[in-house]
Amino acid sequence: MPIKSPFESCIAKPGEGQVVLSLLPPSNPTLTTLTYKYPLKLLTRTPGFVPKSSALTCPSQPVHLYLLTYGGGLLPGDKINVSITLDPRTRMVVTTPQGSTKIFKTEPNASVKGQRGTPKHILSDKSSQTLSVHVGQEAALCYLPDPAVPYKDSRYEQVQTFTVDGPTASKDPRRSSLCILDWVTQGRASRGENWDFHLWRGKNEVWTTDELGKKKLLLRDSLILDRELDQDQLDRNPELLTHTNLIRERTYPHGVVGTLILYGPVFENLANFVMDRFTSLPRIGARNWSSPSTVASGSSAATESPPNFDEQVTFTAARVRAGFVLVKFGAPDFATAKDWLGAILREEGTVYKEFGEEALFCL
Amino acid sequence: MAVKTTPQDLEQEILDLESRLLHARKRLALASSSPSTSLPLRTDDDDDFGVTLPKETNPTATPSILSSHAFLLLSDSALPLGSFAYSSGLESYLAHNKPLPRTITPVASFHRFLKLSIASMASTSIPYVLAAYRYPEDLETLDNDMDASTPCIVAQRASLAQGRALIGVWERSFRATYASVGTTAAPAAAAAVRAIAEFSDALKSCGDTAEELGPKGHLAPLWGVVCLAMGMDARQTAYVFMLNHAKAVLSAAVRASVMGPYQAQSVLASQRLQDMITERIEREWDTPVEDAGQIVPPLDLWVGRHELLYSRIFNS
């Protein structure tokens, strides 16, 4: 079946995109819809990877979707709105091959000529990204993107909604599967940016529909990083910008924070692995009786041992309701978090086995 | 000589502060319940002293006395919710920030935690408290959404234990008095009473396995509904919720030897704390529950990692 040309459809509004992935018999994943419009660009590819051993019987080939924006980021006022439908038993890998999603901030009114007396600090327009994914029975989504990098003074909001079809009772093998990573960094650390943006609001929701057709919220993970400055305050006292930084205060001591959501039969082993990793962490404040020096004086001993990512990354994992495993982490910088997460996913191997090496492209 | 008198002086000061706190709370109760009832009465005289005077002489002052009575009951630290068992992440925070750099005193470090904790509690819970207060019929949905939004089992445990204790206190102690208010006199309170009864039935009829998606009994939405049933106004409801949280954290600080009981009381009485609570409530006043969220990401980590502590004296 030929893929429809994205150019023949004029339905899409700027920044909107739509993808429908269906499974044609016997087991042939096909994109029945693929539309997008500037500044969004969607590319797909089926690398020909076939999962050899899987948690599910007769797994289908994963299809890769690349989320691209012109310039590799979002300008103030840009609105991206992507809707993805995964029909039953399909698999999709979503990555961001352009690297981190940059949230830009343009100089205020730089292009307005001859206009004087404009306030020096003006809050830029919010850019936003909405992603809604409908995941059918036994379908699986592996969404491991690069982190968002909000530049100084930027404002951004993203809402990612995932709707899972079919049963939600844990242990039911017909459940949909989800692996969702959402992380945000302090900005361009190399340019000295340290949580210098104005607003970053990220929300991840997983919904289900019960037998009566009523929507029910299964999980909501919502993070608000807001400097809580409004235009009036800034006009009255521009100094505020340099004096207080609520976001920095509230994220200290981390340079990157993130969440990993795992759900469904495909990621069950990975979920158990992460839970084990968390529960077997060394106790905090315990004394190491086996070594001659106590922990308190043994800080030099810690530096001698080979780098242990679990020591540099503060993380917590919890099995919350409906079989979800929620991992939250904070790390001093992007590279540390990336190495830590990449090491866990590679060591455990589920993502590699079910989706192929390319799914770990961003890590 | 000076050393001998200091404890007495301090005790005197504490008594003074406590009485001032009590007085301030009473004034707050009156002030926050007055705009709705006494504002129309005061249009003809702008005298500030007239705020409380007409209320005391007015026979319609009964609801406000009723509401400040409920206010005092719900803000009582002896309210059997078991809040003393939870430190809201303080114990874990202390363990994660040990040893402190020499430039930072334990008390300064605690103040940072208190500020973060209050901001975070307000942004995650106040929208649910107020939504339940405003729409008691949505209690079950709010409870489900709150459960879906609580990212770790440690926080969940704390919220559930206190929420269910609150239902218990309501049913065993408060209901007899407050549920008898006629449906015509206070339709909102009657709706709240109905909502709690329905929710409580649903809670009892469904087994409490962790994975089930039935009603759970989180503190924040239940707090809103119980306060509505007891005739409190929305401001009081939010304020007492936050103040109780602050009290729990400070009480945990005393038991974790961060500060002494007198110092804890003085923090509790301070203008700074009052301003902080008022400011956070103001900020979340119109936040819909869909936009409630964590604004202090490390707090989730500290609370979640409480289970990793080698020794612990609190449940969270």
TrEMBL record, chain A:
Keyword flag Iron: no
Low complexity biased stretches: 290-305
Keywords for the protein's UniProt record, in alphabetical order: Chaperone
Chain positions covered by the region annotation Disordered: 289-308
Superkingdom, taxonomy of origin: Eukaryota
A single MF term (Gene Ontology): nickel cation binding
Coiled-coil segments: none
HAMAP family: UreD
Cross-referenced PANTHER family: UREASE ACCESSORY PROTEIN D
Family assignment from sequence similarity: Belongs to the UreD family.
Name of the molecule in the record: Urease accessory protein UreD
Higher taxonomy: Eukaryota, Fungi, Dikarya, Ascomycota, Pezizomycotina
UniProtKB/TrEMBL annotation, chain B:
InterPro entries registered for this protein in UniProt: UreF, UreF_sf
Gene Ontology MF terms in the entry: nickel cation binding
Keywords: Chaperone, Nickel insertion
UniProt similarity note: Belongs to the UreF family.
Pfam families per record: UreF
UniProt key word rRNA-binding: no
Protein name: Urease accessory protein UreF
Source organism of the structure: Aspergillus homomorphus (strain CBS 101889)
Coiled-coil blocks: none
Keyword Thylakoid: no
